[in-house]
Amino acid sequence: MAVQQKISNVGCVILGCLSKGPMSGYDIKQVVDTSTRFFFAASYGQIYPELKKLEAAGLITGEGKAQGGRQRTEFTITKAGTDALTAWILEPQNRIEMRDEGIVRLFFSDHLSDEQRIAKIEQLKAERQAGLETLKTICDLNLVDETSSPNLILIYGMGLHQFVIDWCDWAVDRIENPSKPMPTPPGNPPLTPQE
Amino acid sequence: MAVQQKISNVGCVILGCLSKGPMSGYDIKQVVDTSTRFFFAASYGQIYPELKKLEAAGLITGEGKAQGGRQRTEFTITKAGTDALTAWILEPQNRIEMRDEGIVRLFFSDHLSDEQRIAKIEQLKAERQAGLETLKTICDLNLVDETSSPNLILIYGMGLHQFVIDWCDWAVDRIENPSKPMPTPPGNPPLTPQE
DNA sequence: TCCTACATGTAACGAGTTACATGATTTC
DNA sequence: GAAATCATGTAACTCGTTACATGTAGGA
User: Fold this and answer.
1) What does pLDDT average to in each consecutive run of 10 residues of chain A (195 residues)?
2) Distance A34 CA to D24 C1' (A)
3) What confidence score (pLDDT) does residue A191 get?
4) FRET label pair with A146: which of A83, B55, B91, B143, CA 20 to 30 Å apart?
5) Residue A69, C-beta contacts closer than 8 angstroms, at least 6 positions apart
6) Binary contact (B159, A120; C-beta < 8 A)
7) Which of residues 158-177 of B touch A (CB under 8 A)?
8) pLDDT band at B97 (very low <50, low <70, confident <90, very high)
9) Mean pLDDT over residues B169-187, rounded?
10) In B17-164, at which residue ranges do the beta strands (DSSP E only) sit?
């Protein structure tokens, strides 16, 4: 079996979940919703069909684990599956796109009044503050010194949200005080306008 | 005309481009590729059909501008189009997803050796450094003190890339020196492990 | 009894990419 | 004359969401 064919991103995310241990499609959805969601979401409509494809490709095996009348199929990653996962992880990324609808909306906001633009930035800030709170809740501080990838990425996520929040404050200040000397924007080295 | 129906995100991005002035489908693709691309890409396969839908909905009007034998249709945003764009911009975002394949790949890298994990992080850093260079090229420093949205977002993009680069250095240090006191991660307040 | 969580799945639709086809104009 | 750029478009495909259907188990 296992005619070698391209595995989709969702497929690789599923393999990634199963690399932590056997689980059901339902479990995978839970894991994705509480971990990769900010960087990569997945719906049941993708997960269940993809599980069948991965099994047909020999990358995972499913085992019936019904308890009483409640059905449950647990999937386990195979050696071929682990290899495919590793290959996917090591692959370089050709196209960088950090799709962010909120930022795109802001990008096209020049025809609005300053008041509306500022209100929009404040709205974005509030949304990201809520996101940061979610991440902080997930973050068990007892584990903050672990160097596991999920933990490092969690800290990445919190820093990223904080960065956006800081940028919002900076941008509002820029719009409100355009003639004042430009403060150093978050993340950037000091930027000084030239003649 | 103009039966009120939901406008897609690409449609709104097209309206956003046209809010800067009349242009062709080809022009729109150029603008997207040199501005919103990092946050929102669009292909001809989406742009041309969407232009027809927007025209049918009365949000834009197309005008033939062929020069010699070379065809060209320039589109202009209408009042209704501007209103639809404004409504879209002001809409709050229900679902925050900053899809980032590179980060997802890292997230699932725990089964690799430390050497492989570090190599992957260095790869990610190099990719983002290249991205930052692209942004710096776009950034005309003479305009750095302008408070137009595209300019503020450009500075956002540069800060964001720098943040990822800094995080990469921090993460490599964490993996290489797990027992050393944890340095403050980029963007975050100091995080201290608790008992 | 009712609600929540567990559990699996599909059909219809919309979003988005890729590859292709076509032809004119400009620049080297 | 060749290559790059301008310019428009479609067909086939994959990706991804939403809404629905179905039923079990456990706790309030």
Assistant:
1) 77 98 98 96 98 97 94 98 97 92 98 98 96 87 85 95 97 95 87 68
2) 25
3) 85
4) A83
5) none
6) no
7) 158-160, 162-163, 166-167, 171, 174-175
8) very high
9) 93
10) 60-64, 73-77
Tokens representing residue A63 in the block = 């085992």
Q: Which residues contact A145 (CB under 8 A, 6 or more apart)?
A: B178, B182, B193
Give the total residue count for chain B. Answer: 195
* Residue-level pLDDT at A7: 94
pLDDT at position A41 is: 98
Question: What would the pLDDT profile of B40-57 be if each residue is shown by its tens digit?
Answer: 999 999 999 999 999 999
Residue with tokens 């996917």: A88
Q: Helices marked H in A65-113 — which ranges?
A: 79-90, 101-107
**Smallest Cβ distance to B96: which of A38, A107, A112?**
A38
pTM for this structure? 0.94
Residue from B194, B19, B128, B168 nearest A155 by CA: B168
* B193, pLDDT greater than 80: no
Contacts of B100 in chain A (CB under 8 A): 39-40, 98
- In this prediction, residue B139 has a pLDDT band, given cuts at 50, 70 and 90, of confident
Token pair in block for residue A45: 């409509």
DSSP structure class, residue B170: H
Q: Pairing relation of β-strands A60-64 and A73-77?
A: antiparallel
A39–B contact, CB cutoff 8 A:
yes
Task: Indicate the residue of B82, B103, B127 with minimum beta-carbon distance to A111.
Answer: B82
Q: What is the sign, positive or negative, of the torsion defined by CA atoms of A145, A148, A151, A155? A: positive
Contact B110 A150 (CB under 8 A): yes
Residue B195 has pLDDT above 60, yes or no: no
Give the separation between CA B119 and CA B115, rounded to whole angstroms.
6
Buried b (16+ CB within 10 A) or exposed e, A7-30: bebbbbbbbbbbbeeebbbebbbe
In sequence order, the 6+-apart residues with CB closer than 8 A to the CB of B108 are A12, A13, A15, A16, A17, A19, A85, A89, A149
Mean pLDDT over residues B11-26, rounded? 98
Return the axis-axis angle of helices A44-56 and A25-34, rounded to nearest 10°: 130
Say which of B15, B116, B167 has its CB closest to residue A159: B167
